[in-house]
C-alpha cells in the first residue's frame, strides 16, 4: 500500500474531532467539498468506510474510531510541538559565562532591571573562573576578567577597572594609631591577598617602592567577593577594584587607605565570543545592555575617585593571571 496521504489524514482527524465536514473546513480554511474529497480518497486508500452517513450526520465506524484514536493523539502532539517551537522562536534564550565575583557583585544586582525590560527571556548564567571553549561548549558569550587578546575571538572591553588599597574605617583608624605615614601603615597592616586577581600585592608593593610589608599574607582567598567581605569586617587591607567594591566604597564601609597612592586603571572586563555569535539578535541585545550598564558604572566609579581625590593611571602588566 502507498504511504498514507498526511493531508487527507489531517482532514479526517479534524472532521472526527469536530463532528462535521463544515466545521472541519472552517478550522482548516478550505472548502467543505475539498474536505469531502480527501475523506473519500482516504477511504479508498484504506479500503474501508470511516464514517456512517445518515442524512447530514456523520458517525465514526469501528475502523474510523480506531484510526481517529491514533491520529488525534499524533496531531495533538504535533500541535504541541509546533506551539513550543513558536514560543521558543518568539522568546530569547541566552547562555552566558562570567567571572564569579563579577557575576555576584556586578551583574546580579542589575539583572532584575534587564528582566523587567525583557520578561520573555530565558537565561542560563554559569559563574566560573574557567574560560569558555566555544568549540565544545554551548555558550553564547563570556563576560571575562583580563586584559584582552583572546586569539580568534571577538572581544570588547566594557569596563576599565580601578584598583587601589582599601579597608574598613575602623581598621584604618587602628593603622593611623600606629603611624601617620601611609607607607608605614601598609607595612604594619594585614594584607589580604586575592590570589586570582590581575594585580596583586607583590606587584603593587614593588611598584610603590614599599619594602618590609607582611608579604606572608595571613589571608589568601580565591574570590574577590570574600576578600571584600573580610575587609569590610576589619580583617585587613585588600587591593581591590571599584568594579567589585563600589557599593561599599560609596556607602563608606570601605575607604581608600590613602590618596597618596594612585589607582591603577586597566581594561578589566570584556565581552568575549566568536565573532559569528554577534550576529545573533539575543547576543547583540544583551551585549548592548551590558555596555550601557558599564558606561553608567564607569561614570559612578570616576565620580567616586574624584570625590576621594584619587588619581588614576592607565597601566598594563605583562603576565596574565585569570579572574577572581
CATH-scheme architecture of the largest domain: 3-Layer(aba) Sandwich
Give the distance, in angstroms, between the N- and C-terminal Cα atoms. Answer: 67 Å
Per DSSP, the total helix count is: 11
**Overall pLDDT score:** 88
Tell me the Rg in angstroms: 33 Å
Query: pLDDT under 50 segments (min length 5)?
Result: 318-324
Order of SSEs, N→C? HHHEEHEHEEEHHEHEHEHEEHE
CATH fold title of the largest domain: D-Maltodextrin-Binding Protein, domain 2
The oligomerization state is single chain
CATH class of the largest domain equals Alpha Beta
Helix content: 40-55%
Q: Profile the largest sheet.
A: 10 strands, mixed
- Overall geometry comes to rod-shaped
Furnish the topology, listing elements before pairings.
Blueprint: H1 6-18, H2 21-28, H3 32-46, E1 51-54, E2 57-60, H4 62-90, E3 92-98, H5 100-117, E4 121-127, E5 141-145, E6 154-167, H6 169-178, H7 182-188, E7 191-194, H8 201-207, E8 219-221, H9 224-232, E9 237-241, H10 242-251, E10 255-256, E11 263-273, H11 281-307, E12 312-314
Parallel strand pairs: 3-4, 3-5, 7-8, 7-9, 11-12
Antiparallel strand pairs: 1-2, 5-11, 6-9, 6-10, 6-11
TL;DR of this structure?
With 324 residues, this protein is of the alpha/beta class.
Give your account of this protein's structure:
This protein has 324 residues and is of the alpha/beta class. Helix content is 47%, strand content 21%. It folds into two domains: 6-90, Arc Repressor Mutant, subunit A (Orthogonal Bundle); 92-324, D-Maltodextrin-Binding Protein, domain 2, CATH 3.40.190. The chain has helices at 6-18, 21-28, 32-46, 62-90, 100-117, 169-178, 182-188, 201-207, 224-232, 242-251, 281-307, and strands at 51-54, 57-60, 92-98, 121-127, 141-145, 154-167, 191-194, 219-221, 237-241, 255-256, 263-273, 312-314. Helix 1 crosses helix 2 (21-28), helix 2 crosses helix 3 and helix 6 crosses helix 7 (182-188). The longest helix is centred in the N-terminal third of the chain and has 29 residues, at 62-90. It is rod-shaped and about 105 Å long.
Amino acid at each position: 500500500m502507498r504511504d498514507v496521504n498526511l493531508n487527507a489524514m489531517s482532514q479526517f482527524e479534524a472532521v472526527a474531532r469536530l463532528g462535521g465536514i463544515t466545521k472541519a473546513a472552517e478550522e482548516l480554511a478550505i472548502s467543505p467539498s475539498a474536505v469531502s474529497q480527501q475523506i473519500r480518497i482516504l477511504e479508498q486508500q484504506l479500503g474501508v468506510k470511516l464514517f456512517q452517513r445518515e442524512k447530514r450526520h456523520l458517525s465514526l465506524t469501528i475502523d474510523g474510531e480506531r484510526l481517529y484514536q491514533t491520529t488525534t493523539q499524533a496531531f495533538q502532539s504535533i500541535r504541541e510541538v509546533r506551539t513550543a517551537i513558536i514560543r521558543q522562536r518568539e522568546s530569547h534564550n541566552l547562555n552566558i559565562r562570567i567571572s564569579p565575583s563579577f557575576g555576584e557583585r556586578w551583574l546580579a544586582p542589575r539583572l532584575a532591571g534587564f528582566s523587567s525590560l525583557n520578561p520573555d527571556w530565558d537565561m542560563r548564567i554559569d559563574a566560573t573562573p574557567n574560560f569558555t571553549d566555544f568549540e565544545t561548549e554551548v555558550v553564547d558569550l563570556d563576560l571575562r576578567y583580563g586584559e584582552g587578546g583572546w586569539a580568534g575571538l571577538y572581544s570588547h572591553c566594557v569596563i576599565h577597572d580601578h584598583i587601589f588599597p582599601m579597608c574598613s574605617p575602623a581598621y584604618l583608624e587602628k593603622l593611623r594609631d600606629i603611624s601617620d605615614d601611609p607607607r608605614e601603615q601598609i607595612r604594619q597592616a594585614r594584607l589580604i591577598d586575592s590570589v586570582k586577581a590581575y594585580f596583586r600585592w607583590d606587584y603593587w608593593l614593588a611598584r610603590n617602592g614599599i619594602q618590609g610589608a607582611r608579604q606572608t599574607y595571613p589571608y589568601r582567598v580565591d574570590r574577590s567577593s570574600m576578600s571584600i567581605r573580610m575587609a569590610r569586617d576589619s580583617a585587613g587591607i585588600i587591593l581591590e577594584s571599584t568594579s567589585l567594591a563600589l557599593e561599599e566604597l560609596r556607602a563608606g564601609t570601605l575607604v581608600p587607605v590613602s590618596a597618596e597612592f594612585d589607582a591603577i586603571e586597566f581594561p578589566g572586563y570584556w565581552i568575549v565570543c566568536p565573532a559569528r555569535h554577534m550576529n545573533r539578535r539575543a547576543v547583540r541585545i544583551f551585549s548592548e545592555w551590558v555596555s550601557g550598564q558599564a558606561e553608567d558604572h564607569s561614570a559612578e566609579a570616576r565620580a567616586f575617585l574624584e570625590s576621594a581625590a584619587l588619581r588614576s593611571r592607565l597601566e598594563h602588566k605583562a603576565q596574565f593571571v585569570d579572574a577572581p
